[in-house]
Amino acid sequence: MSGFGWAEFARDLPVALGAALGVMLVTFLIALRKGVHRIVDVAWGLGFAAVALVSYAMSTGDGDDGRRVLVTVLTVVWGLRLAVHIGRRGRGHGEDPRYEALLAKAPGNPALYALRTVYLLQGALVWLISLPVLTLWAVMAAPVFPELWAAVSSPDIDTFRFKADPANKGRIMDRGLWSWTRHPNYFGDFCVWWGLFLVVCTDPAVAAATLVSPLVMSFLLTRGSGKALLERHMAGRPGYAEYRARTSGFFPRPPRRS
């Protein structure tokens, strides 16, 4: 590929932003009706799927069709899996304590505060992280990382089976992938977004325009609302200190000996 179409890239940015914010605004209206803001976490994955589908439609007739389909399918499948997983996990529960604490200190109208600080912010992050997907029109069949297609092993099924067994109530999940990393789902998300970056990275200009996306996702997974937040929540659970001492915090490795 010779050169990077900055004009096309700039053209697609507002359309993708509109798709991400559209998903979040619809979710906001549903949340107001239900009186529960935790459903925004379900919309997080759906936002990425929406941006991928819009980007695929805008890139029709350009780029390499095989890679365009690959990136779109990977993103949509990842987004839908995440939405279903979070939806099932939160079914039957009330408001998320994070959003309760946030809205408790809201200045003025809590609903408008939630719209600004939760929904619009998450929509903007979806758009920013999706930058590699927005370059589908520029993705060419070049021999740059052709084998590095994003693959992720999801431990969701093992988790549901573990929780379904009454004997495991109150115990820490430390089986399968959970014995190699305390956060296999987050590590899987990390692999997906770095993998997508490598798939579309057929030109230095593409890399320069989209590198921020996997970097931001990596920060969110390790230092933001992912690993760090969950570990603070789990810190007081019986047996978690021992599990943390023997198990990697993020990148998988064999468990340490006691």
Describe this structure in words.
By secondary structure, the chain is an all-alpha fold. The protein has one domain (6-246). Helix content is 62%, strand content 0%. The chain has helices spanning 6-34, 40-58, 65-90, 97-104, 110-129, 156-164, 184-200, 204-210, 212-222, 227-234, 240-246. The protein is globular.
The largest sheet, given as strand count, sense and whether it forms a barrel, is: none
Cα radius of gyration in angstroms: 20 Å
What structural class should be given to the helix and strand makeup?
mainly alpha
What percent of residues adopt helix (DSSP H or I)? 55-70%
The arrangement of helices and strands along the chain is HHHHHHHHHHH
- Proportion in β-strands: under 5%
Global shape: globular
Enumerate how many helices there are, as a single number. Answer: 11
Question: Which parts are unreliable, with pLDDT below 50 for 5 consecutive residues or more?
Answer: 143-152
Distance between the termini: 53 Å
Number of domains: 1
Mean pLDDT value: 85
Number of strands: 0
Organism: Streptomyces sp. gb1(2016)
Pfam family, one: DUF1295
Transmembrane segments: 13-32, 39-57, 69-87, 124-145, 192-222
Keywords: Membrane, Transmembrane, Transmembrane helix
In summary, what is this structure?
This is DUF1295 domain-containing protein. This protein is mainly α.
